[in-house]
Design brief:
CATH topology of the largest domain: Quinone Oxidoreductase, Chain A, domain 1
Shape: globular
Number of strands: 17
Largest sheet: 7 strands, mixed
Structural class: alpha/beta
CATH architecture of the largest domain: Alpha-Beta Complex
Number of helices: 10
Radius of gyration: 20 Å
CATH superfamily of the largest domain: Medium-chain alcohol dehydrogenases, catalytic domain
Order of helices and strands: EEEHEEEEHEEHHEHEHEEHEHEHEHE
């Protein structure tokens, strides 16, 4: 059986190919058909540079780690053909010290699709059919919207940043950057009853953040953030900008917490490390997720958040290259989704 797949073959070069499915599904795996996938900033870095965060791709690769799918062949798993499942892309070993502590994001033998971090690389979800471990497939109620369910993975990442920041009801929180992850951090923090404020250089995304749960928004370059210094219990840095990280150090209270959700890119901008000492700031990284996948699914299924507002565009799978270029243009406010052509 042949199927449509996209392959990143070099920087900014994506080919659409007809591939053949293996005759047999591997033991412990389920055969799936893509329902909806979404683009991540990681995919964009691989598209632009054929590398991300120091991980160089060694061969052509199908990108994509945010998706949901329908079961084609359950292959003995407790699933039913035609059933929609959410996909947790973290293939963890369950045996290492970190896994036994519940820290599957830090699994020492972790495998991850659509990424240069796993060698040999594992093709990701930007393809019509694929086999994936059964334990990574999570059932959802009938009638669940696949376009909403594809948010499970990125929402889990943002939820993890909220949890490591110990954000709770009444926490005064600033989120720097209203890209997709920042917007989902708004949704996650608002669901916990935090007082959420945001800032970004783009007025339109600040307005969108307020539509999906932020209590107040500031436009950098228009609004004076100087008066907000030392105002926040927690700041989540979601922009990837070294300047924004320095701003986070200014905005957080003494003995407050700064959470790095973004992948801050190397630059010549000096980081104001002395402020971490002077204000006794806790700076903590937030990488992927653990129990948050269940939390994210519960929030999606509750219907309490409007994920339609967070969908910027939809492209057919055959136009994956166009979708990535659209994302690279920076004009999309929210998530870009990929749908099967058929």
């Amino acid at each position: 059986m042949s199927y449509l797949a996209s392959k990143l073959t070099a920087a900014q070069a994506v080919e659409t190919l007809q591939m053949d499915l293996p005759a047999d599904v591997p033991e412990g795996y389920v055969r799936l058909k893509l329902a909806t996938a979404s683009l991540c900033g990681t995919d964009l870095h691989y598209f632009k540079h054929f590398a991300n965060a120091g991980f160089q791709l060694q061969n052509a690769l199908t990108l994509g780690h945010e998706a949901c799918a329908t079961v084609v062949d359950a292959n003995g798993a407790d699933l039913v053909a035609g059933q929609l499942v959410a996909l947790n892309p973290i293939i963890f070993c369950g045996e290492c010290e970190n896994c036994k502590k519940g820290l599957v994001n830090l699994c020492t033998s972790k495998r991850f699709p659509g990424s240069g971090t796993t060698i040999p690389h594992i093709d990701g979800f930007f393809r019509e059919y694929f086999d994936f471990p059964a334990f990574c497939c999570h059932k959802v109620p009938e009638g669940t919207d696949p376009d909403h369910l594809t948010f499970a993975e990125p929402l889990s990442c943002s939820m993890h940043s909220v949890n490591v920041g110990e954000v709770a009801e009444g926490t005064k929180l600033m989120i720097t950057g209203c890209g997709p992850m920042g917007l989902l951090a708004v949704v996650a923090a608002a669901s916990k009853g935090a007082v959420v404020e945001v800032c970004d250089v783009r007025e339109a995304v600040v307005d969108l953040a307020c539509e999906v749960g932020a209590n107040k928004g500031y436009v950098i370059g228009r609004d004076d953030l100087g008066a907000l210094a030392a105002s926040y219990d927690v700041v989540i840095e979601a922009s990837g900008s070294p300047q924004a990280f320095n701003q986070a150090l200014d905005l957080v209270k003494r003995q407050g917490k700064v959470v790095i959700l973004s992948n801050i890119q190397p630059s010549d901008t000096p980081i104001h490390l002395h402020k971490i000492m002077l204000k006794e700031i806790d700076v903590v990284g937030s990488f992927q997720f653990n129990r948050e996948f269940t939390e994210a699914m519960d929030l999606i299924l509750s219907g309490k958040a409007d994920f339609d507002k967070l969908i910027a565009a939809r492209f057919p799978l055959s136009q994956t290259a166009d979708a990535l270029r659209y994302m690279a243009d920076g004009k999309a406010f929210g998530k870009i989704l990929l749908k099967p052509d058929n």
